Amino acid sequence: MFMKKILISIFAIILVLSLGACGNEKVKSEKTEISTEKLSKFPEFKLNDLNGNEVSSKDFKDYDITMINIWGTFYSPCINELPKLQKLNEAYEDKNFRLMGIVVDRDEYGAKELLKEKGITYTNFLPNRDIEELLANFDEVPTTIFVNKNGQVLNKVVVGGKSFEDYDKIVKGLLEN
């Protein structure tokens, strides 16, 4: 019984500390890039985006590079990154590049309001079961992955918010290869 109380106490402390970190913009991840060793192909999926338009993994074939930003409505670095991503989307809209967002916290109403408020026009959607397994590989948001026209996850996964200039450099490099 005593051991059970200790374990519950430890779990409660960890939970409180992790929740406190979610709202603190000063918390920075030590890792900014992670390996794609476990990720070779983006899972096949078919769903509707937040505007009701059909989106599927077959759409990847229409673009040399698809950038997928995994974000949450609850985390200010994700929210602060939205205008930078919109600017990137506009800069590359005629360069065989697509930007998509996956809203991990499934807050459809909150996401729609945020996207409208920030003037975000690129595709955003909530994950379905097909995508859930992929998301289990990531424990931080924002996280950004890049997929080629064959649906293969490229060896470039970015963890944490980046500047427009940082993303611009990454996208230019990927499109040149």
Automatic annotation (TrEMBL):
Chief site of localization: other
Keyword Amino-acid biosynthesis set for record: no
InterPro entries membership: Redoxin, Thioredoxin-like_sf, Thioredoxin_domain, Thioredoxin_ResA/DsbE_sf
Gene Ontology cellular component terms for the protein in this record: cell envelope
Keyword Magnesium: no
GO BP field: cytochrome complex assembly
Gene3D superfamilies assigned: Glutaredoxin
Annotated localization: Cell envelope
Keywords: Cytochrome c-type biogenesis, Disulfide bond, Redox-active center, Signal-anchor, Transmembrane
Domain called Thioredoxin: residue spans: 36-176
GO MF terms held by the record: oxidoreductase activity
Name under which the protein is recorded: Thioredoxin domain-containing protein
